[in-house]
Amino acid sequence: MLPIPYPYLEGNTLLLETDKETTFPLSFDGFIRCRIVKLYRPSTLSCVMEVETETEVYERRRFVLKLYDRRYATQLRKDHKAEPWDIAQESAYFDFVKDGDASKFLEYIREEDEIDEPEGNEPHENELAENNPERSEPEETYWNDQQIEVYLLNVCLDLFERECTAYDRMKDLQGQDIPQLVAKVRIPPARSSFEGLGVEFFQVKGILLELIDGFTLGELIDHAPREDWQAIFDQAIRVVRICDDREILNEDVRPPNVMVAPLPSKPHAYRVVMLDFTQCSFRAVDDSDRRWGRHKWLQDEEGDLGRAMQSRLKRVGFALVYEPSRRYQEWARVEGDDD
Hints:
By secondary structure, the protein is of the alpha+beta class.
């Protein structure tokens, strides 16, 4: 295989294929061409960058592009004990897909209700059941490099689906309390050698989002006057509570995931926006009020944000007022409750 250069560098151009639902005016025959303006590092569960659309017909506009790419999501790879990605690994992964073993392993991890996540990259003795072609799942906890790559691919696809589901459920909040979802996109495989091997193993899925020009709630002290802190925080808590109404449980509500955008036309006025919904789960159809309420009480999204900001601002002598809504208090555990 030819060497694969790192694609996400400032100045590089990406060709994004949009989904069928996209009505974005900058899309030409289902594609959006954009140039990378800025990278947001480190790459955690996804690769996030600021991009500018390249077009001769419409005005160029900037957006945030979030790509769920198993190869370069460094924190994701670290969390799942995967070695840093390199060309040799991708070559072995290519062969794994070509031989049909990747499809078998992907089917296995999707069919199992619970699987032990990889403890490392040591191959197991019966790798993909060499002695039993009818069996594709590993017998040991340890997976080889190619199996880990397939597992990471599945994690990335799940993160993409979770975030898209969250944006779909909060469609009426887009452009106000959460960013506008401009398009669901993918970067298709570029090589003709991938044809016939299963596009899902090599494509990269992502979302194109409205760019929020501002600072995070975690940077509040450095970017907003002291007299505005309480009002900005109150807006952030309001957004968290609005998201509660969409039957979403967000495990990643924290100050860096809240953007604050000053409104140029109004002094001391701000738009506060919630970001990042990859670590969301959703109320199932058969979830009782009690079961769902218990999950929400234990997670306590607004409490996570409130306590974090109280702690930060206390260090600079500011007494932030936070009054919990206690919306799910009736579902709190009591002594002798085994549910």
